[in-house]
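Contributing: when you submit paired examples, paste them exactly as shown. First protein:
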Amino acid sequence: GLRARDLFLGAEHLTLDLNTSFETQIAGEGQGTNAYEISAKAGLQIPRMVLLPFLRTTRASVPVTNIELGYGLFRRIGLYGLESVSTGFGYAWREDRLTWHDLRVLEISFNNLYYTSEEFDDFLDANQAVRRSFDEQFIIGFGYTYTRSTKRRDKQRSWLVYTLGGDEAGIITSGVFRGIEGPRPEEGYTLFGERYSQFVRFRPEIRWNKLLGDRGSMFAFRTLVHAALAYGNSSTVPYVKQFFAGGPNGLRGFRARSVGPGSYIGMESENLLIDQVGDLKVEANAEYRFTLSGMFKAAIFADAGNVWLFEDDPQRPGGQFDSRNFISELAVDAGFGLRIDPEIIVIRLDLAAPLRRPDLPAGDRWVFDDLRSNWSGNFILNFAIGYPF
């Protein structure tokens, strides 16, 4: 990364970042699958509310205007390649010491599935709902996130942090097209020859922390319900805006993006490892964190959750949300973690195992017997930076 402070002699902050990552599965289900990602991002942070000087902010925090431009490329080796270009304009400010606002006035992105293998094409041909989520699409919208904490003093023993987030795409664009072209055609409105997306997402989340004793022990809890709904110009939410379950910051006893939707059983081909996504995500996480010695800390944790579809998809049976049985479709895991926390960066190792698998037949989803007979094949070791929540 490159940072330039005081770019225009007004305390403006320019950042140029290049990121790359590589992942591989070295054991267990999906062994040998690889993926890599490359992204570049430029951001300009202006320490004032450009065009919105009237918004009230606390004197202890400087409000900022954010302008961003980015490019990303993701390649699931042997399956597909996805690239995106994005830009955004928005504001971030603190109303007071306990309240944060993040307003994304305009977000524009274009996603392009630039490469697919023959096997992945066959999968998309048989799964039209998934194909539509991968279509080349414009996303033009806005978003807002409200965050409030109840921690009023440093020595407070218990506090809540709750977040209410939402974003929408396509409503303004559709209004313009409706005024110019009239009613929406059957194939939908297009922009520069490409169909643009229209959806709304809601992302509420609550976190609760409680200090225990005098050595930094803590109980931490998080629960969230995220939902996305396509309408108007779109029949499905874009793949990049859908939700997934599993991975080092969620259901740690399951491979990333491998859970759900619902009780759906994924592809059996060893060469076709498809990330599972959904329109609705419900998740809860709990950790008991304690200090071993100095900067060496540990945690005992449990996670539960899944993702679902709002509409029935014949190619993903069991994936639709049903309020009568969604509890029985929750994936559950538990584990133990080691953390190195020198108060600068946290290095985290979490070892977890599934306790309940929603892809198994109802009545056989608890897998305690499998853990005893094949513990080495069921445990997943997650390496991550930072606390999961």
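Second protein:
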Amino acid sequence: NIDRGNYKLSYLFGIISALFNPVSYLEVEFAEVIKKVKEKVKGKIVFREVIDEILSGLKVHTVPIDEVLIDNAYEYEMQEQRWIGRRRFISHSDAKARFGEHENFKFIQPGVRIVFDIESQTFYDVFDELNPTLNEWFTYYNRGDDLQIDFVNGVYFGNDNLEDNLMKHRRASQDVEGKPIQVPIYPYVKFGYSPIDEKSFFFYKSAVNELGPQQRLVDRMWGMVMDGTFLEVLPPLGVVSNQVIKSSVYYPGAITTFQDKDTTITPLRTGSNLTAGFNAMPCRCGRKAAIFRRC
């Protein structure tokens, strides 16, 4: 299940996301993908519906952080959020494949979202100029009320009975009498690089944010070291002579005859110490001399 669910690659991208994002999400789902295949029966081509074993089964997905909405930013635990939502954009063909059999799909137009104005108590069609060919798919989860409702472009895609929209992701548990029962659970796992406080804030501190001050020091010292390296390779020169010597004399391969026999050319060195610059650069573990040794 782990190999078929793409868990390894999803976890890798989740770790990479945590390096520069305030939070990372992984979604767990059990998919049953049905496809139509061709079969030749008595010389005729017929279509049959089969379960795609490659795309079906336990799946783990990396979820972009801007797609997940939460109820309370000061609640650390994901499962203790009163409600969460996921907002994403899908193609019209994908929306039709998922919700085409619902009676409300006839109201769906690509790029057109239905919004409700509270003051006038009126619904409006709003054209999304940023996503003119896509549909907005929003899923509302409420673990306390055991609700999971889908909206496409603001149109309701649940059951006629609101209480019949049970959460699909569940786990085995027991009721107060000890009888087995399936309880709802949010299908998302969150993690991050480093906690911000004493477990009272939902988000984390990213590696980019935590190492920012050290990075500014490294950038500054790196520039100074490179400047010092250039001065070591091509040092400025001091010329003592009655003859004017142009800068073109110092190009590689140039041949110049000096008429003044007392001409002296001295490199101007200010005692640059490149090793000191390298040692000032911090390593990720906080130690110095990151270039000369590994952590």
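If you have annotations for the second protein, write them as plain sentences, like these:
The helical segments are 7-20, 92-99, 207-210, 212-233, 274-279.
Confidence is low (pLDDT under 50) at residues 289-295.
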